Amino acid sequence: MPTTANGRRARTLKNWQFDLIFAAAIVLVLLLFHLISGGSFLEWSNVKGILSRSAYPSFIAWGFCFLFACGYTDMSIGGVVVLGSFASCIFGNWYGLPGVILGGLLVGLCLIFINFLIFTYSGIPSWIAGISLAMIYEALAFLLKISKGTKALISTSLDKEYRVLGQLPWCFILLLIGLVVVYFLYNRTTVGLNIRALGGSRDVAEKLGINAKKTLLFVGLISGILVGVSCVLQQSYAGQTTVKTGLTSINMIFQPLAIYLLAQIIRERINIVICVPICAFILYSIFNLLTMLGVPSGTLQEACLGAFIVIFGIVGSRKVRGVVK
Predict the structure, then answer these.
(1) Which tens digit of pLDDT belongs to each residue from 256-269?
(2) What is the residue range of 71's domain?
(3) If you placed Cys at 252, which of 13, 45, 78, 267 could pair as Cys (CB 3.0 to 4.6 Å)?
(4) Is the overall model pTM greater than 0.70, yes or no?
(5) DSSP letters of 61-122?
(6) Does the residue 119 lie in any domain?
(7) What are 278-296's pLDDT values in tens digits?
């Protein structure tokens, strides 16, 4: 017993040491960015913009935590975000802030839950079904964009008075609330344990009495709520959402994916749920600096993002075995 207690204290001390070193490294990097940018990076107006932009992808990255934990993926999330953002805009302009919240939340929840009904009962690999659903959601969004009855509604921006959730302090408050709720669900509930067990081995999980289909539907509910919140935040921050066909909506999940993969690298020392908003801030700080240095956002920054995903994926998956469904 004393040996076990000593071991726990030693691990706790190592974790605290890592946390301090990690925090110090972030501070040093931010100071370096400030020097490189000529003293502009740490100005409050710039930091405020980075914090605001970090909120929306953090919720999608948290959704990835549940998706990948159970061994599934969903390539249609970008299309869901487009439709949910449309709903936030339309109902927001009609009914104010409650419409902004309910529009995006309900669309995100319903569509992701429908996705998981398909994943669970069709037997189609989730990545194949997800791509197909992405094409459907993109086509639906495009039809809404060009239809005479809905074109004016979609083309109109969300009124500025209803965009407060995309700005500080409200987006930061929502991020903190999300952090607490997601941490509890992922780490302290039976559902979270079952989800991770299912990702480890479905056969073993079912032999232990875990209802795989019921657990997957819970993943759909939780991820749907998180994606719904991201729809609200995205529309509140941007004010208007554009849509294109040809699976371009998948581009919307690349940054959250990079955030998740970066969090995956340091999850052994810091809980992955806590890592997500930290990694979101780090990633958007990098892109903010690149913008300050004049790096084009549509070309070289996209190349950098692709490189980050490859590097983070290689490093973060060193100890992961198996194939994502």
Answers:
(1) 988 998 888 887 77
(2) 55-250
(3) 78
(4) yes
(5) HHHHHHHHHTT---TTHHHHHHHHHHHHHHHHHHH-HHHHHHHHHHHHHHHHHHHHHHHHHH
(6) yes
(7) 999 988 998 888 888 887 7
